[in-house]
């Protein structure tokens, strides 16, 4: 995963993730994260991390964005952008990678910090040899 050439649509997705990060609720970790997913039809859905005093109830920005998209009826996601604090690219945690996996290994993943390099890869590269819906056989509908 190296710094990659950003497409125009990547820049828009990063901008949406940066805006979502401003709304993060992270009083415990002080690690505000924003994410945005792009649906196959071009719509963008944002999410931010939301912490809870009962730490296990905290939810990551990526999952909030995915759940927003699904709640709007989206079933095809083509890209996700994740932005966190610091100079290093913010990478999705394992749980978020698995949730994203539900929507396809070809998904483009754009990772950034406040400053510094931007990394672009695919979900397949971030989550190799993963388990997904295709392992469960034919799905209804």
Fold and architecture overview:
It is a single chain. A 5-stranded mixed β-sheet has the order 2-1-3-4-5. The chain has a single domain (about 10-130), classed as Cytidine Deaminase, domain 2. It has helices spanning about 10-20, 60-70, 95-100, 125; strands at about 35-40, 45-50, 75-85, 110, 120. The radius of gyration is 14 Å and the shape is globular. The chain has about 140 residues and is α+β, with helices and mostly antiparallel strands. The chain contains 4 helices and 5 strands, in the order H-E-E-H-E-H-E-E-H. The N and C termini lie far apart (about 35 Å).
Keywords:
141 residues, alpha+beta, Cytidine Deaminase, domain 2, five-stranded mixed beta sheet, 5 strands
Topology of this structure?
Blueprint: H1 8-21, E1 34-39, E2 44-48, H2 61-71, E3 77-83, H3 94-101, E4 108-112, E5 119-122, H4 123-126
Helical coverage, percent range:
25-40%
Derived from helix and strand composition plus strand pairing, the structural class reads alpha+beta
Rounded mean pLDDT is 93
Instruction: Tell me the strand order in the biggest sheet.
Output: 2-1-3-4-5
Given as residue ranges, the uncertain stretches (5+ residues, pLDDT < 50) are: none
The count of β-strands is 5
**CATH fold field value:** Cytidine Deaminase, domain 2
Alpha-carbon Rg, integer: 14 Å
Distance, first to last CA? 36 Å
The CATH architecture designation is 3-Layer(aba) Sandwich
Query: Considering the protein shown, what is the CATH homologous superfamily?
Result: Cytidine Deaminase, domain 2
Shape by Cα distribution: globular
CATH class: Alpha Beta
Instruction: Give the assembly state of these chains.
Output: single chain
Give me the strand/helix succession. HEEHEHEEH
């Amino acid at each position: 995963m190296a710094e990659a050439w950003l497409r125009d649509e990547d820049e828009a997705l990063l901008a949406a993730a940066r805006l979502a990060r401003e709304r993060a609720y992270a009083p415990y970790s002080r690690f505000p994260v924003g994410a945005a997913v792009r649906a196959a039809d071009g719509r963008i859905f944002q999410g931010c991390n939301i912490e809870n005093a009962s730490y296990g109830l905290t939810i990551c920005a990526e999952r909030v964005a995915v759940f927003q998209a699904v709640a709007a009826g989206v079933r095809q996601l083509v890209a996700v952008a994740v932005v966190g604090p610091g100079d290093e690219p913010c990478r999705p945690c394992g749980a978020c990678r698995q949730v994203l996996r539900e929507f396809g290994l070809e998904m483009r993943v754009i990772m950034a910090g406040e400053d510094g390099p931007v990394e672009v890869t695919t979900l397949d590269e971030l989550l190799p040899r993963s388990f997904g819906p295709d392992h469960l056989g034919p799905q209804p509908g």
